[in-house]
Protein: Truncated transcription factor CAULIFLOWER A-like
Amino acid sequence: MGRGRVQLKRIENTINRQVTFSKRRAGLLKKANEISVMCDADVALIIFSTKGKVSEYSTDSRYINICNIYSQDCSSIIHNK
Structure:
């Protein structure tokens, strides 16, 4: 039997919130790496903490290329509406 659903709500205790953020950030970065390796996908991930610290992951240092492709795709969607 698996875990039950976790009720999503803001963690009020600042220390607990920061610890949870750090653990989940590490998990997201790991998953981004896994999907890029397993599926040969270009991946870019940006995470901003509440303090303004930026964590990022991108495949093969192609962050700028991935962002440019995303930007072009978004602009074509907006213009087609």
